[in-house]
Amino acid sequence: MEAELRIRNAIETDVEEIYRIHTEAIKKKCSTRYGAEDVSAWVARQEKAKYLPFIVANEIIVAEIVQSRRVVGFGHLTADTGADSDETADGKAMQIRGLFADPDCGVKGVGTALVKELENRAKEFGAVRVKANSSLNAVEFYKKCGFFALDITRHQISEQSCLQCQKMIKYL
């Protein structure tokens, strides 16, 4: 029997699970495309407290298994400022700032369910496109969700580490 997922706004008590999922996904999934030093630097910059302002602003959603209420993924959607692109900040774009599924949850479709909900929320805000700076290991996932690859960017995560990311866009 396939687990039933519920997508909901994150609440402050989800911080521990969001942090755990984020760091475990980086260690287990992102390590397929990034070196050990970059992965360590990426994990080291994560802090539980950094999620709280986004939770309070209702920018983070979680996927949880209905039966157990176990959080198995999260997504972060925010207004796109246009600062990192050639496009103007016209208010018609939203950006996925993070999307991670628990690599050990054993449930299929967590990421897809989160993307669909983030897209629906973007539409509610009047967005006509959603953008993401995808880690290299997630590019194929985003393509399966209907996103198109743009150019490669670099994301500075520490003085020593700079990650390559793929700019992605989907027109709603």
Automatic annotation (TrEMBL):
<dbReference type="GO" id="GO:0016747">
    <property type="term" value="F:acyltransferase activity, transferring groups other than amino-acyl groups"/>
</dbReference>
<dbReference type="InterPro" id="IPR000182">
    <property type="entry name" value="GNAT_dom"/>
</dbReference>
<dbReference type="Pfam" id="PF00583">
    <property type="entry name" value="Acetyltransf_1"/>
</dbReference>
<keyword id="KW-0808">Transferase</keyword>
<keyword id="KW-0012">Acyltransferase</keyword>
<protein>
    <recommendedName>
        <fullName>N-acetyltransferase domain-containing protein</fullName>
    </recommendedName>
</protein>
<feature type="domain" description="N-acetyltransferase">
    <location>
        <begin position="5"/>
        <end position="172"/>
    </location>
</feature>
<dbReference type="InterPro" id="IPR016181">
    <property type="entry name" value="Acyl_CoA_acyltransferase"/>
</dbReference>
<dbReference type="InterPro" id="IPR050832">
    <property type="entry name" value="Bact_Acetyltransf"/>
</dbReference>
